[in-house]
Amino acid sequence: MGRSISDHCPLIMRNSIVEWGPKPFKFFNGWIMHPDSKEFCRTKWENYRVIGWKSYSLKEKLKMLKKDLKVWSREMFGSLQHKMESQREAIERLDRFDEVFGLEEEEVIERNKVGVELKRNMIWN
After folding, report:
1. How does pLDDT run across 46-71, given as a tens digit for each residue?
2. Residue 115 contacts by C-beta under 8 Å, 6 or more apart in sequence?
């Protein structure tokens, strides 16, 4: 339509899925809950020295922080995914044993303890 008839302009939209590749940064919510996380990130960030445009500097600092956070996370939390998988397997094993034979009091305590640890790890994750 011409402008003399309508004040609307046609709009062409495309619907396509864009594959951006792997996520550039994986973040675990539990990191912010850790008492040392803010100071760790601040100290690391301030010590990075990158020369170049601001956007380039930001990208490079994020890349360095990602690497350092990965090491810090492993040191602070261990391999959380592996721990959680082991905990799930332990609970499943105890549940299967309980269905057939029933659990002794100490096994019930152990099962509850592992369940609490798993929930805590899920929060950190």
Report:
1. 999 999 999 999 999 999 999 999 89
2. 91
